[in-house]
């Protein structure tokens, strides 16, 4: 059994405040910390000494001092602690190791097993975490815990996956408790869109944006004034039913006709490709076959196929209508896109989206932009790990971890 | 010229904190305040004495003490200060006087003059404020300022109304500066939906809800964890273009076919009534005639007319689809409805909305509810006055007032 987090018992609140200030502004000096925290100089020195001894921070090379003695920059010591981030998408299972300086140290990417039942999935994740830690060669005692990002709806407080439409065999699965039992590690469960927005917020300097998550499903989250909104039941972001094209073709599909999910999720795009004669219908209950067919569609478009290009261009314009709804409602200056299918869609989407969204906006905005995530396809897993690190290292720990 | 606010220079931050605590929890005792503020007992006593001397708070009747000396409840003294709230709707002009204890002391309700130009409107508002203050018989020196709620889009920071589709003659109107020049009072300008959500938050105990504003236009705002979201450019809430019925009839109208505005604003409902043969088409550029025709439609429905009832029932079901979009996206547990047309729509809407919205929800919620505002039709004007009181009395004053 792995053990976690005890080494990092931070002693007191001030220590957590100082570590958080260094995390948020790497290279800060003791004098900076004193100014920003309001703590006494001697207190800062003592805390810095303890954090250096615990290998949580280290001194970096000083720059040239303008006058007098150069101040020594303090940075988080990545090797001081780690979190595992897991992302369960119906087609993709991502497991990565993030250090407390925000670097991905190692990662595993598996196709999500077919017709998964929750017990098998828990066992697979537990085994994979062991493998990840072994391969990365880190000290297990420095593992803070595991964050899992899953499709909603879920009960974050009890750590239960309720009944995600994308995981039909999953009903009221106590994933957090089960994975805690299987690994002995603290475990946190959160929604894929919330984890993704957290990762984007950590990586970018941006404090106000809408995050559009594109995976086997479509979702959104909102960062406002540097805070990730999560919704009253932590289930923010169900946007798949938003009507984006009243004239949309009938996909003979479970999702809402003319809705945002029907416009852009792999299953719906594959049906459109089949209707256009581009491919034969795969078994749509097989998420891997659907995902492969979706890849084929995007490759056809990249290769210049007119029908495939038409489908993805139309998808981008429909997504723009949906984004317009959200931007008009919440008045956000920037939209960031990411998630498991984003890399395959970006070539078709990025040239179209910004202008198409602008045409939907009621309030004209000079500064409005639509951009790709700076984090990449692993974003939900990385965000799940970020949430664990925040839990243990931020001054106000959440109550959402089992440990 | 009226003078404002100088009498209320609060001396220091602690004094503002204490006054805010009493405003938020009327009847709180000095011992409570000490516990909640962390200030020393003697500091609390001194501040309470100064606030009583300034007539901003007063001592209320003590209840029975469980043991020992009964504690004396402190409450805000309504007569200590006032704010004027103005709401400019294309059909209705509301001007009211709110005291710092949250009571409406006096109000004027005018039909908004036809084909208003901004200069005439400013003059009318200035004259009306003078009349309001005279009729209420309050001391002008206790007037904090004027808050104006208007349809968006607007530039809250500069106090400029940009180009509201509902006020076609208004383009880049410096309403805040003009009204300040005309009255000599501090003036704050904000969006109708933001003001409404602020009033609802102040009046109800609720800290998480979506506010749906129904007036000549339709808008929404969000309160999350006791904070009113305003959007990056303070223009939150443009929801009129959300598609709610792909099969909707063509209204030959400026709004989006099948959109939320086409489903529920007076102009669109009057066109539907005309199409159903219920009335002859009024001059739709005349907001008062349109508003009167809308009133006729709602009276017909209340009187049992089947066609009128059908139109309003259909409107409720379409509005439910729009609410569903917003609730699914932001995961809010409660929806509150209000605004200038709400009283005329509530009889048809309330019996239908909650169940109809529930059918739209992706995440099932036991506690979900759709309710009428506790504030009533004057909500936007009252919220505009609340924003002024908050500006002057809350510890963190906004920078959005000209004074």
From TrEMBL, chains A, B:
Residues 12-58 form the HTH marR-type domain. Coiled coil: none annotated. InterPro entries: ATPase_NBD (IPR043129), HTH_MarR-typ (IPR000835), ROK (IPR000600), WH-like_DNA-bd_sf (IPR036388), WH_DNA-bd_sf (IPR036390). Pfam families: MarR, ROK. It comes from the Bacteria. Gene3D superfamilies: 3.30.420.40, Winged helix-like DNA-binding domain superfamily/Winged helix DNA-binding domain. One of its GO terms (molecular function) is DNA-binding transcription factor activity. Belongs to the ROK (NagC/XylR) family. This is ROK family transcriptional regulator. It comes from Pengzhenrongella frigida.
């Amino acid at each position: 059994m792995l053990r976690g987090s005890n080494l990092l018992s931070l002693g007191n609140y001030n220590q957590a405040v100082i570590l958080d200030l260094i995390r948020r502004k790497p290279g800060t000096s003791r004098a900076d910390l004193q100014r920003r925290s309001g703590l006494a100089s001697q207190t800062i020195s003592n805390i810095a000494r303890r954090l250096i001894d615990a290998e949580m921070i280290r001194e970096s090379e000083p720059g040239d001092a303008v006058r007098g003695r150069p101040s020594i920059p303090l940075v988080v010591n990545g090797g001081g602690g780690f979190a595992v981030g897991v992302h369960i998408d119906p087609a993709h299972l991502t497991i990565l190791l993030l250090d407390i300086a925000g670097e991905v140290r190692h990662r595993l990417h598996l196709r999500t097993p077919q017709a998964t039942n929750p017990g098998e999935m828990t066992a697979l994740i537990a085994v994979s975490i062991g493998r990840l830690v072994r391969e990365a060669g880190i000290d297990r005692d420095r593992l803070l815990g595991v964050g899992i990002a899953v499709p909603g709806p879920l009960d974050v407080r009890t750590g239960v996956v309720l009944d995600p439409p994308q995981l039909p065999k999953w009903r009221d699965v106590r994933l957090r408790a089960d994975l805690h039992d299987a690994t002995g590690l603290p475990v946190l469960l959160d929604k894929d869109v919330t984890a993704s927005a957290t990762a984007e917020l950590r990586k970018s300097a941006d404090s106000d944006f809408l995050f559009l998550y594109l995976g086997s499903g479509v979702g959104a989250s909102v960062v406002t004034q540097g805070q990730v909104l999560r919704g009253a039941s932590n289930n923010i972001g169900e946007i798949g039913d938003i009507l984006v094209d009243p004239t949309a073709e009938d996909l003979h599909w479970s999702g809402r006709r003319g809705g945002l999910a029907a416009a852009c999720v792999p299953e719906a795009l594959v049906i459109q490709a089949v209707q256009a004669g581009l491919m034969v219908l795969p078994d749509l209950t097989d998420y891997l076959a659907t995902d492969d067919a979706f890849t084929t569609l995007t490759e056809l478009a990249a290769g210049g196929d007119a029908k495939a290009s038409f489908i993805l261009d139309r998808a981008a314009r429909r997504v723009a209508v949906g984004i317009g709804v959200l931007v008009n409602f919440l008045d956000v200056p920037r939209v960031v896109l990411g998630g498991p299918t984003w890399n395959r869609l970006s070539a078709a989407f990025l040239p179209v989206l910004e202008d198409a969204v602008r045409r939907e906006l009621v309030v004209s905005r000079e500064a409005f932009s639509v951009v790709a995530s700076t984090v990449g396809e692993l974003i939900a897993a990385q965000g799940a790990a970020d949430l664990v690190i925040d839990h243990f290292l931020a001054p106000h720990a959440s109550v959402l971890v089992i440990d």
